[in-house]
């Protein structure tokens, strides 16, 4: 009986997901109720057929240990390490000791997938990963996980098109992010991806990359054409790491670096980009602008620096794309390195992330990574692998007894791993994952993925989304703490539920209290408890009182999720 009901729930989920977004059909309350029933039906079937069993994670197919032991790869990492070592010596700093491997894979999972590793993944990592280079093995696993490309696409899309939905008829952010995810999953050359964005033509339905252009259309302006000014600002900040849009209205009177004409001459490359029946097309239209105290006049197409790299021929946007992504335009490569670094560390190497000086000085490691990125054809996966192999990424964020205490200078000069608050979607994703022993990914059942999406969306809505300000320092609020302490998501993910919640399943399957505490810590904090923590919670479970063991386990899980450690990248 439960098998047939299970298939009915699957058919219903697939049909509604492909025909119309679920939130357009059923009210939020109805969604939750219907989803609860469907998950229960599925859970009964799963428990009945294989009680508390999970599928094995397939080891990464593309991992090759020799690839990351060759001199070419090792020398780059050693050169970066040497620059940081000299930098720390100059500053009189003794760096923090190395972090353990579980801490590092937690950092990588949060930075690349937006969630913590599952207990299932941790077990596989400890049992299967090679002892000589486990971090590269883990990265191979993450790169084959669709969640990585999906999360990177969302993070990059915020700098490309923002977070708003844009004009209804001509723009679909979801399609754009999906296209971008495909490019990252295939590990397409990043310079090619950016060229596709700048030169895109056609309609968003067939060419999703054209959304980079169409998102700037203001349907209230009468012409409904892309906005040259907005596009110029996006190109300079997202791809070149310069804030030239600050001179849109007047010259720079502070350091006299930029003039108003620099910005509008760049915007002129988009002047012939118009919206037609067939989508975005080049029309050859000129760009006119009225500078202060001067008459309206046509603005020539020129770039603000390194003009010798601008191609002489081709359509305006093709020329601009060639200049932006030129191998000798190091601003493009620096911006790419800085953004990837920020995703992995929670903080950019150069702050702000979109304001990198053209001439320097530059922090240690940056120029070496830029050279390597250019040499290896803008391979983002290789860039991530190199950074993850460096000493600076592997440093701990704390020191044990016997070490000199860490200071603000350690944090400022990268002599310890910088701790930063998790983004709202990272907090929500980690709560949902901590409540499941198995990995919730693209291979999970559609009902569990739907539940995750709905619950994460509700949580982020109340927790607060920081929007396009990707790496600004975040300050925790009282309402955020209350949401973690008393919110619906945490309550539902810790209460007694043999099918859906890891807390209950751990208690039902662990051989003793010591294993209960260890599995709980691994599931929530991606580490084992200290001896003092282990002893304390074992004593709590041993106490004879009115509270049941299940209630004690719920309290343990609740306490771990509400710990400061859980909400920070450390």
Keyword list:
disordered N terminus; mainly alpha; globular
**Beta-strand fraction estimate:** under 5%
Distance between the termini: 48 Å
If strands are numbered along the chain, what order do they take across the biggest sheet? 1-2
**Number of strand elements:** 6
Which whole number gives the mean pLDDT? Answer: 84
Q: Which stretches are poorly predicted, pLDDT < 50 over at least 5 residues?
A: 1-26, 35-55
Oligomer: single chain
Quick one: overall form?
Answer: globular
What report would you give on this structure?
The chain has 570 residues and is mainly α. The chain contains 27 helices and six strands. The chain has a two-stranded antiparallel sheet with strand order 1-2. Strand 3 (288-289) and strand 4 form a beta hairpin. Helix 1 packs across helix 3 (28-49) and helix 15 packs across helix 17. The longest helix is centred in the first third of the chain and has 22 residues, at 28-49. It is globular.
Fold blueprint:
Layout lengths: L1 H18 L2 H4 L2 H22 L21 H20 L10 H13 L5 H10 L5 H10 L2 H16 L11 H13 L4 H10 L11 H4 L13 H13 L19 H8 L5 E4 L2 E4 L5 E2 L7 E2 L17 H9 L5 H16 L20 H10 L4 H10 L1 H4 L13 H5 L7 E2 L2 H11 L11 H18 L14 H9 L1 H5 L9 H8 L3 H13 L5 H12 L6 H13 L6 E2 L1
Antiparallel strand pairs: 1-2, 3-4, 5-6
Helix pairs in contact: 1-3, 3-21, 5-7, 7-17, 8-9, 10-14, 12-13, 15-16, 15-17, 20-21, 24-25, 25-26, 25-27
Summarize the structure.
The protein contains 27 helices and six strands. The chain is mainly α and 570 residues long.
């Amino acid at each position: 009986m439960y098998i047939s009901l299970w298939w009915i729930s699957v058919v219903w989920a697939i049909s509604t997901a492909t025909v119309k977004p679920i939130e357009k059909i059923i009210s939020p309350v109805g969604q939750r109720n219907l989803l609860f029933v469907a998950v229960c039906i599925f859970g009964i079937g799963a428990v009945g057929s294989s009680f508390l069993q999970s599928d094995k994670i397939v080891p990464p197919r593309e991992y090759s240990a020799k690839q990351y032991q060759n001199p070419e790869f090792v020398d780059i990492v050693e050169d970066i390490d040497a620059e940081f070592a000299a930098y720390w010596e100059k500053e009189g700093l003794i760096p923090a000791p190395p972090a353990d491997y579980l801490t590092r894979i937690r950092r990588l999972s949060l930075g690349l997938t937006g969630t913590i590793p599952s207990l299932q993944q941790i077990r596989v990592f400890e049992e299967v990963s090679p002892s000589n280079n486990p971090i590269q093995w883990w990265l191979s696993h993450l790169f084959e996980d669709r969640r990585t490309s999906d999360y990177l696409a969302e993070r990059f899309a915020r700098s490309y098109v923002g977070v708003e939905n844009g004009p209804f008829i001509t723009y679909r952010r979801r399609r754009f992010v999906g296209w971008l995810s495909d490019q990252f999953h295939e590990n397409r050359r990043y310079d090619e991806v950016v060229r596709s964005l700048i030169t895109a033509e056609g309609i968003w339905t067939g060419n999703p990359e054209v959304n980079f252009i169409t998102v700037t259309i203001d349907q209230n302006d009468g012409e409904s054409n892309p906005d040259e000014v907005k596009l110029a600002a996006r190109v300079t900040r997202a791809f070149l790491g310069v804030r030239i849009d600050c001179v849109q209205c007047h010259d720079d009177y502070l350091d006299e670096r930029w003039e108003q004409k620099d910005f509008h001459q760049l915007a002129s490359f988009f002047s012939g980009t118009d919206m037609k029946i067939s989508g975005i097309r080049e029309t050859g239209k000129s760009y006119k602008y009225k500078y202060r105290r001067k008459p309206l006049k046509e603005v020539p197409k020129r770039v603000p620096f390194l003009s010798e790299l601008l191609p002489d021929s081709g359509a305006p946007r093709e020329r601009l794309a060639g200049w932006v992504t030129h191998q000798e335009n190091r601003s493009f490569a620096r911006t790419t390195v800085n953004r990837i670094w920020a995703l992995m560390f929670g903080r950019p190497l150069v702050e702000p992330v979109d304001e990198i000086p053209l001439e320097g000085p530059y922090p240690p490691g940056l120029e070496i990574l830029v050279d390597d990125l250019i040499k290896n054809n803008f391979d983002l996966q290789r860039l991530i692998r190199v950074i993850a192999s460096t000493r600076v990424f592997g440093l701990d964020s704390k020191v044990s007894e016997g070490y000199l205490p860490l200071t603000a200078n350690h944090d400022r000069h990268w002599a310890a791993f910088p701790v930063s608050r998790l983004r709202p979607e990272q907090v929500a994703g980690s709560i949902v994952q901590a409540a499941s022993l198995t990995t919730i990914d693209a291979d999970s059942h559609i009902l569990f993925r739907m539940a995750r999406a709905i619950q994460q969306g509700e949580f982020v809505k109340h927790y607060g989304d920081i929007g396009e300000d990707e790496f600004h320092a975040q300050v925790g609020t009282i309402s955020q703490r209350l949401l973690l302490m008393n919110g619906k998501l945490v309550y539902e993910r810790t209460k007694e539920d043999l099918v859906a919640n890891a807390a209950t399943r751990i208690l039902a399957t662990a051989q003793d209290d010591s294993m209960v505490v260890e599995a709980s810590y691994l599931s929530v904090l991606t580490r084992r408890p200290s001896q003092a923590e282990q002893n304390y919670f074992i004593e709590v479970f041993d106490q004879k009182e009115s509270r049941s063991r299940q209630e004690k386990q719920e309290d343990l899980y609740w306490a771990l999720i509400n710990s400061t450690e859980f909400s920070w990248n450390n």
